[in-house]
Amino acid sequence: MHAVAAFRVLDAAGSPRRGGLALDRAVRLARLGSLILPVCLAILLAAPVLLPTLSDLALVPFETPTRDDPVRFSYPIEAFVTAGMSVYVGLSMVMLAIVAMTRVRGSGPWASVALLGLALAPGPVLKTVNGVTSVPLPYELLRDLVPVFHNNRFCERFLVCWWLGASVLAGQALAWLGSRTLRPRAWAVALGAMILIDLRPERLVMYRPAVPAIYERLAGAPPGWPVYEWPANYLSNRKFMFYQMVHGRPICQGVVSRRPLLSYLMEEHDAASTLESMILVLHHDLVPDEGHRRKLSVLMRRYDTRRLAVEGSCEALLLTRRRTGPSR
Fold it and tell me: Residues with Cβ < 8 Å from 321, sequence gap 6 or more?
């Protein structure tokens, strides 16, 4: 604001043409600063998570394609149309987004986010129902300029940017249309119904997903004890972590996409075995092989156990580290 006021003074003292250009430049700089500030704030907030991973970064992952690489290790076209990896906003929202981009002032930043996500989501080359073609797309340019993009496994994740931008644009269009009609509520109801009809194939979940009853019974354990699910692996952890919404206790595992080097020690040394006490939830129907059973037996020898609950193939045990006397 001070910069704008200063340029107005210069505009009054000097040439109107020169002062007007200077004022426009100041306004553009102010707008640029309003964009840079959120970016810097996002980097600052993400620093505690990003900085510890720098020691685990290596040059090889950025130059060697992963098995999911969309070009050099291409999957069949069916792999690019999978549930959970696509975002459908609906034709109604697309039309509203177009109205906002063409009619509403101030829609430029959100239009940029939406169009950028839509341009990057198809990946580096064009894909059709017949397979992967050699037609380059904008993502290919980023692969050459930004090394991190070499190791991006699923380009479809950029559809989230398209979904976010299109949603905000649709809201701006609704506000713009409502200000130009005598019955804005009727317009809003009609457009809302049209959007719901457009999205009718998707289920609107209005209830909590089913959770095994054994997690309700963990309340009988001492407060603060963590929950350790067995077996602990990449696929099962995704489901087990959501059960924390029911028992509300600390959990001993998680899911990461880029594993740090130290995590590979868990292949031979179970980090959970360092805990003094825990609640072990055994899923007997998921123990896959003899190797997992052997690791479980090693873990159990270190603890005194007491059964807490049994529900179907699930069993909850209270584990307390076994005390050993001093060696002679």
Answer: 275, 276, 277, 302, 303, 304
Q: Which pair of structure tokens corresponds to residue 213?
A: 């009853």
Distance (Å) of CA 286 to CA 209, 231, 232, 233: 20, 7, 10, 10
Q: What is the DSSP string of 18-29?
A: HHHHHHHHHHHH
d(CA 56, CA 52): 8
Please state the domain extents for the chain. Answer: 2-57, 61-198, 213-259+267-321
Question: Does the N-terminal peptide bond of residue 209 adopt cis geometry, omega within 30 degrees of 0?
Answer: no
State which of 167-171, 239-243, 246-250 shows the largest mean pLDDT.
167-171
Report how far residue 148's alpha carbon sits from residue 319's, in angstroms, rounded to the nearest whole number: 43
Residue 151 CB: number of other CB atoms within 10 A? 16
- How far apart are the C-alpha atoms of 221 and 308, rounded to whole Å? 8
Sign of the torsion formed by the C-alpha atoms of 218, 221, 225 and 227: negative
Q: Which of 54, 53, 3, 10 has the alpha carbon at shortest distance from 30?
A: 3
Q: What is the DSSP string of 74-142?
A: PPPGGGGS-TTS-----HHHHHHHHHHHHH-TT-HHHHHHHHHHHHHTT-SEEEETTEEEEEE-HHHHH
The pLDDT of residue 98 is 93
Model confidence pLDDT, tens digit, residues 152-166: 667 777 888 898 999
Task: Check residue 284 and give left, alpha or beta (phi > 0: left; psi -120 to 50: alpha).
Answer: alpha
Q: Give the C-alpha separation, 24 to 142, whole Å.
A: 32
